[in-house]
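Raw record, unedited: TIR domain-containing protein
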Amino acid sequence: MAVTYQIQMIQVDRKAWSADLRSAIENELRSVGVHLDVTVEFTGSNPDPRAPSVAVVLAGPAAKDSDKVKQAIVDAIRVGRVVIPVVEDLTNFHEVIPVPVAHANGFEWSGDRPERRLARVLLEELGIEDRNRRVFISHKREDGLGAAEQLHDQLAHHRFVPFIDRFAVPPGDDVQAHIADALESYAFLLLLETPEAHRSKWVFDEVDYALSHQMGLQIVRWPDDPKPIPGSGDLPRITLSAADLATDAHGYDVLTPTALDRVIHEVEKAHAHALVRRRRYLVRSVEDAARGAGATCIPLRHWSLDVMFPTRRSIVGVTPRTPAAEDLQRIDQTRTIIDPDARAMLVHTARYLRENTRTHLEWIIHDRDLHLIPDNAVGGAW
């Protein structure tokens, strides 16, 4: 059974945008492999209140003065639905956007394939793709620092939260422990395969961890066939040419604007695929274990399951990272809506929870019937 989501298309003179956006969303669902697990319906009127939904205002010249558009926006905001305004040029935002949604941050329909970028924004808002986009940048400082810092800045401009040890580890902290925590929390590794990278034990450990924990992994390979990190030889790569690189003021290699755009595009695509794949794997692992114990399972929104036995019931969520407060809140709220007496479980991929993380999560859980289960122990949960 597929989970149904709805997207409310609010427009009067943007039929072409609407058609392109529908097609992009359908293509994205197929691309990340969830087209059989979820159904996204498009509507011009109020969505079904039982379905997770988001509204998008495709604003053309006639939108600002359209009473129909204004009323649809007001109705959506009144029921708490997120409304995303879309314009051709953000510099003219207030000239074309109806007043009821003029307070919201807008999306600019411009550049290369804006419908694809907007599709990902909407799927993230619905919880189908991951809106908490984190990337761990693995590199050897001697020849990769310039490109790593450049990618850090550019990824941040594309709504990612990138990690570089130079920026993220406070002075005096245990670097190795901090990096291990970051790998658990980020779930996606971007490796800069520079000529010296294979000499770094830390880079090897980071890649080995990513591979052994089924993390998403994207490799950017420097020109002239640098030696690969052990264990990564058969993995796909973005291969740079000499023309894709320049030298910064400190003598480090950096990417040209064209190469940088290419890498960011590939990271966006790989990240979406990897996190959806990892969540789906976790959900199916839970479902297999529950069905093997005699339960029936109903898929719910936000990659969760309603697991029912003849005499008991569990609401089970998953997270591909170290569990966080918002994960616990989401599964607890889902349980409260469906059956307050059900057991709630959060299945996570962290192999080890540090003492401060564990005690923090236990403090949040307090006396709720809410349980943290590592994914390698889910078979014994019932």
